[in-house]
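ingest -> validate -> predict -> emit
validate: passed (alphabet ok, no gaps, 353 aa)
predict: started
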Amino acid sequence: MLFVTAPLVAQACRNPYQDATVIRPAPPVYPDSARELGLGIVSAKVIVTLSPTGSVIGIKIAQSTGNMALDHAALVAARQSTYSPKIVNCEPVAGDYMFRVTFDPERNWPPSLARMPGATPPSSPSPYPSPSPEEACAMQVVGARWGFDTGRQRRDYDRALQSVAEASSMQAGCAAKIKSPQRFSLEMLAGSTLSRAADLAFQLGRYQQARTFATQANTLYAQMLLPSIDQNYARFLTPNAKANLQANDDLLQRIARRETCVGSASAPITSLVLSRMPAGSSVPGIGVAGKYAVAIAYGPGGYAVRSFLLVNQGGWKVRASEGGAFDLAAYQRNGVPASIASKLASSVACAGA
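emit:
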């Protein structure tokens, strides 16, 4: 008997038509600089161009939040999310989609993706025109702030400070050359970022870098206080600029005291203490006497004070740590002579704890 085997027919895919979707949405990060302005809940729309593999080949803002830091955060969320492409006749195709981001200071809302009716799938990403001087300045300033905030959150302090140091716009004051209302918000953001970087560098014992950042910030703030500034913005900028200018002047004085009273030992001590503390902590007080040192650390938000006793034995090492401040009994428990304990206290006071 002869058997004839019929040819196999390829089975159609389960879903021949399927919209693009977000597989793993990157949660948007509400920038600190925007929180300070009290903007509340705001949203942005980003046009995302996906390739047939679902990779992002283009992004641009379609609806701005009105704040550059938030717009940049929306672009970062769109870029870092992962997608599945649109399916047509069982084949993946490229396309443009609307990525909506909601920023809420109280909670995280997942971003969403929607089709753009009438959009023609591109065969390749469109070339982007060269940014204008204003756009280039904005990207530098906003990018530096985002890099600083991200590095600090991850405790990558070197990267945080490098992001600010590399931003030529911070040093050259490119915002002052912009002839639009964005100039003032850029200057304020640049000055705020430089001030935060100065404070972080000081806490890490990098006094020269702290001095550079604080001086650059004060140059920007001084420009904002000139009589020629637009009065519509002066009402908002003047009190903030004056307060930040005074804070940086105070920091410069603290740098001078710390260099005089503690010297080069501050940087390794600060680094060692911060490695034992939660992210966002600071070391406002350090005292050194002979081979002993004491460091006063504040937890995030300035709470949970903790003191560290260190000894230099071929390098600084933590001998003890306690909640609150060390008293004479604590020094004695750890073998520190009374005369040295007194000098440590004097050194901390000299350095301006």
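The chain has three domains: 17-115, 133-261, 263-351.
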